[in-house]
Amino acid sequence: MRFTYLDILEQCFHDKFRGYSKQEVDTFLQLVAEDFKEMNDELGQLRSENDRKQRKILKLEEKLKAAEDSQKNGNGNGNGHSNGNGNGHSKNSNGFGDIPPEVLKEKAQKIIEKAKEQASHFKQDAEKELQRLQSEIKNLKGEKKDLLENFKANARNYLQTLQGNKNGDHHADSNKKD
Fold this sequence. Notes:
Elements: H1 5-9, E1 15-16, E2 19-20, H2 22-72, H3 101-177
Antiparallel strand pairs: 1-2
C-alpha cells in the first residue's frame, strides 16, 4: 500500500483513557515504514539503472567519437588504424599519417579562425567589463564628492554651534571669574 502525503497528514488515532491507542499508532507506523522501505528499494534500483545507462551512454559516445575521428582522418574503415604498414603508424612526409597537407592547412585555418573568434569575444567581454568598472568608478567618485561636501557642511554647522555655545558660555564664564 502506498501512502500519500495527505494519508499521513490526515491519519487520526482514537483517543483512549491515557492518549492514543498504542496498537493503532504502531500499526500505522509499521505501514508507513514498509511504504518507505519499498520506495527506498525502488529508488536504489532506479539509481543503479541510471548509473548503468550513464555508463552505456559514455561507451556509445566514445565509440561515436572514435568513428567520427576515423572518418575525419580519412580512414573510413572504422577501426582507427591507417591502411599503411598494418601497425597504425604509417606516416607521410608531414608526420600526420595519410592526411594530405591541404587538409591539414584547412584544419589549421579553422582552428586559427575559431581562436580569433574566441579572442574577439574575450576582448568584447573585457571591454564591457572595463566600461562597467569605469562607470562604477565615476559613480563612486561622485558619491565620495557628495560625502565630502556633506561632511564639510556638517563640520561647519558643528563649529558654528560650538562657537555659539562658546560665546554664550564665555559670558557665563566671565561672570564666574569676577
